[in-house]
Design brief:
This protein is of the alpha/beta class and about 280 residues long. Helices cover about 45% and strands about 15% of the residues. The chain is built from 11 helices and 8 strands. The protein has helices at about 15-25, 45-55, 75-90, 105-110, 115-130, 155-165, 175-190, 210-225, 230-235, 245-255, 270-284, and strands at about 1-5, 35, 60-70, 95-100, 145-150, 165-170, 200-205, 260-265. The chain has an 8-stranded parallel beta barrel, surrounded by 7 helices. Strand 1, helix 1 and strand 2 form a beta-alpha-beta unit. Helix 2 packs parallel to helix 3, helix 3 crosses helix 5 (about 115-130) and helix 8 packs antiparallel against helix 9. The longest helix is centred in the middle third of the chain and has 17 residues, at about 115-130. The radius of gyration is 18 Å and the shape is globular.
Length: about 280
């Protein structure tokens, strides 16, 4: 299993210098990907533009949207932006997409929330058509378009993985939950008659340091996932705050067949990058 690191594009105080510092350091290793989150009604940096800036200062590390809400965007526009990013990164884009559950984002985008499932299925089919066609362009570097991962933890989501995607991407949580969902996605893939197995990606949250750091990380998660109600507390309870917890979490995902695990900081500053880097280099 490979380990990536999330960019702090949804954290307060993140600026150009911090994003580029993360990207440059990740490109030198030990991380194999950099990921971004997606919110519209939030004080955050746009995910696609953030990765576009990072593409210009990196050569090796993979660029991943993990994830973006596909139906917030028109399909043609999403296809063009993804193809452009794939060209600018010389074929290093992994496009992780899902429905998105935040109704306020849909309202702000002027997109219908209730029909998003139906539109998402159609969008996944049309993305490939745009990437393989001659109408919009540019032609992606990766044959057939960027690596496409679909998120979600429902039967319709797993069927979308099997029909349209290269793999499944999880929404976090403990390794056991990830493993169960990955098995469901793989089963749908096999039942559809597709050869091989899907790529499976996951992510986790960390805030390494003292108690004040851990508290700040928990506050961020409670705020970011406030739309889920009481479930936000369960997400915050899963925050990794010690090296031992990080190692146990990463190994748990590896044991359950994860291909790429992206670890997202919940506190700003370059110190979080440095602390996770030390753990990955010395203990994993």
């Amino acid at each position: 299993m490979q380990v990536g690191i999330g960019l702090p594009n949804t954290l307060d105080g993140t600026d150009r210098d911090l994003v580029l510092e993360y990207a440059r350091r990740a490109d030198a290793g030990p991380f194999t990907s950099i990921g971004v989150f997606d919110r519209l009604v939030y004080h955050s940096l746009d995910p696609m533009q953030t990765l576009g800036v990072c593409a210009g200062v990196t050569d090796e590390v993979r660029l991943a949207t993990s994830i973006i809400a596909g139906p917030l965007r028109s399909t043609a526009m999403l296809a063009k932006k993804a193809a452009t990013l794939d060209v600018l990164s010389d074929g290093r884009l992994t496009l992780g997409v899902a429905l998105g559950a935040r109704q306020d984002d849909y309202e702000a985008a002027g997109a219908d929330y209730r029909s998003r499932g139906r539109r998402f299925t159609r969008q996944l089919e049309e993305l490939r058509q745009h990437w393989e066609g001659d109408d919009i362009g540019p032609e992606p570097v990766q044959p057939g378009g960027p690596q496409l991962l679909v998120g979600g933890e429902s039967d319709p989501a797993y069927k979308r993985v099997a029909r349209f995607a290269d793999g499944w991407i999880g929404a976090g949580g403990p390794p056991r939950r990830f493993g169960s969902c990955a098995e469901s996605a793989t089963a749908a893939w096999t039942e559809s008659g597709r050869p091989g197995t899907p790529a499976v990606w996951g992510h986790g949250y960390f805030a390494l340091g003292d108690e004040e750091t851990a508290s700040a990380g928990e506050e961020y998660l409670l705020d970011y996932y406030a739309f889920t109600g009481p479930f936000a507390e369960r997400i915050a309870d899963g925050l990794l705050t010690t090296p031992q917890e990080v190692v146990q979490f990463v190994r748990g995902y590896e044991e359950r067949g994860c291909d790429e695990l992206i670890m997202f900081p919940t506190v700003g500053g370059i110190e979080q990058y440095e602390r996770l880097e030390r753990i990955v280099e010395s203990e994993l």
